[in-house]
């Protein structure tokens, strides 16, 4: 099975010109489906200027849960859908811990995205380098809260996830302590945790969910993660801004078919 690749540009690069150049570079490098999460300000122009042949799916880095209303500074699932955006990352650790987003808010965002036929990429992961057991307790607790009440939308997710490329829920396992480049975790441990996440979601919600690894993935370490069939792909942050790193990552993922 082909691995999914999501590139999270975070609050980079500094101009639309640079973003467009990077976007076109990724488009030319790959024939496979890749998702890119650029800053909000660039979304509309990237969608409108996307080459018809490009298979890149554009997603947001964050979204609000309600569709319209008095929510200063927020952008709704309805708005991104009308703009041609495929979905959004939800619960990234930088939003959980710097912007203090809690599980209740994250849960509302996931439900709203799925209800509106948009993809939710849920990020979960332990904050400290805990024992495997402690990490699993932490992650399962997050999953329990973040995926609470998704049962009403389950038909939409499972119907759409029959064709894997159309799934409306992807989970990214991102140990918080390893995010930021240069601090990768042990691939075997990540594969084990990912296996447990899949088991948990299957048991609680009856869903076969795709689970990616994220945390300092780069050209040097990606091969160690590619060995594990449990890891369905990667969410790449820092390395996704460097052309040489992107080329190398895309090539290694493509060769792994
Ligand atoms: C991320 O932003 O989700 C991420 C994994 O970042 P990095 O690759 O820089 O660790």
Number of helices: 10
Associated small molecules? phosphoenolpyruvate
**Could you state the order of secondary-structure elements as H and E?**
EHEHEHEHHEHHEHEHEH
The major pleated sheet works out as: 8 strands, parallel
Number of domains: 1
- What CATH calls the topology is TIM Barrel
SS strand fraction: 5-15%
Describe the structure.
- This protein has 257 residues and is α/β, with parallel strands linked by helices.
- The protein has a single domain, classed as TIM Barrel (Alpha-Beta Barrel), CATH 3.20.20.70.
- The protein contains 10 helices and 8 strands.
- It has an 8-stranded parallel β-sheet.
- It is globular.
- The model has no long low-confidence stretch (mean pLDDT 93).
- The site of phosphoenolpyruvate has 16 residues, from strand 8.
